[in-house]
Design goal:
This protein is α+β, with helices and mostly antiparallel strands and 216 residues long. The protein has 2 domains: 4-78, Nucleic acid-binding proteins (OB fold (Dihydrolipoamide Acetyltransferase, E2P), Beta Barrel); 82-215, de novo design (two linked rop proteins) (Up-down Bundle), CATH 1.20.1440. 42% of the residues lie in helices and 22% in strands. The chain has helices spanning 82-85, 87-103, 111-125, 131-145, 160-171, 184-201, 207-215; strands at 4-17, 21-28, 32-38, 57-64, 69-78. Strands 1-2-3-5-4 form a 5-stranded mixed beta barrel. Strand 1 (4-17) and strand 2 (21-28) form a beta hairpin. Helix 4 packs across helix 6.
Amino acid sequence: MSSNYEVTGMVLSSVPAGEYDRRIEILTKERGRISGFATGARRPGSPVMAAAQPFVFGTFVISEGRSAYKIRDARVGNFFPKLRTDVSLSCYGSYFMEVLQYVTRENNDETALLMLAYQSLRALESDVFDNRLVRAVFEIKTVMIEGEYPGPRRDTQYLDATLYTLDYLFKTAPARVYTFGVKPEVLEELAGYAKWLCKKTWDHRFQSLEILELLA
């Protein structure tokens, strides 16, 4: 019998599997991005029903299966309720989760990206931050964490406040990146830079981003 392990993480995606199960991907602190089956998650009263949903952050009890993990139990720490009732916020969150599915790997140390994901969803639920700023910070800091940050564009002149913000993001831990606001002109530069950076770094078609930009 496989041993059970406890991991802390966030559900990136969840799709039906069979009649009552769900296949979920979790970004974990201990094992990077993992795939697993939440058996019976679609049955009323299932101990993993509430946790087998996108955006859920919590503790998961898993065991190793032949080709994927099995989710035995879970305790929800935060399920980000506003992201489930607000279409715009849900689109932002879905985009963030899709990016993390693309850049993370199993057995990698993804602790920094997990913290960034958690703080980014918290920032989306907050009334303090413009969602466009949250998106730009998430995109730029993700590239920085991945070690692919090239610095400011050399063919573009930026405001001093924009350059200061980029430097702050580079030097600051993910837990503290959402501690500031910016003027509209700085936000425009950050958003433009983030768009250029993502295309340069990933050049990947994110389906959720296309939906987000239709709603923007």
